[in-house]
# Entry
Amino acid sequence: MKERHQYLFLDFEFTMPESKRNPRGFFPEIIEVGLVSVLNGEIYDQFSSYVKPIKFPILTERCKSFLNITQEQVDKGISFEELVGWLREYDSLYPSTVITWGNMDMKVLRHNCSQAGLPFPFTGEHRDLAMEYKKFFGEQNQTGLWKAVQEYGNEGVGKHHCALDDAFTTYNIFKLIEKDKKYMAKPKPTTIGDRVDFSKLLSKFAL
# Structure
């Protein structure tokens, strides 16, 4: 029996400094998680929650405005330790591949784990779908998630910068890209010219 393989479509939202210039010591912390588990091409489970930051627990006005998030929502979220526990639990269900749009999610998760003294929860492969999209379509610059899905003639799921909605949007564009890859990999149908040896045919009529 073929072993099941799980795809985990993952998106985080992070804390932000008040200005684009990071204050000394600041680093982004996860404050929202959205995860979609897919087995055998079907959605198996989903998980979303706000997450309480450890180092910088008070959100900046810029962060609240950009993400349309409130301090109260984050204060009622799970702890970062609980988040890592949830992610480890998903990772342990089946051999898994984590798929994100861009590499920032995994970078911040790894750094947050290091700062909190917690082990990184994932043991399998990670795929950066934004990089795959860039290479597949020969783009010069990395395309944003919602712009990419709109280029396919679709719209993103729900609300941009809502972690679970972005995780579902990542899953949807993954399906579109995989379909295109299979289409491009199919051999072209042979033409009559491929099937007939014209040199033999001409020599026959020359007799």
About this structure: The chain has a mean pLDDT of 87. The chain is about 45% helix and 20% strand. The longest helix spans residues 163-185. The longest strand covers residues 42-52.
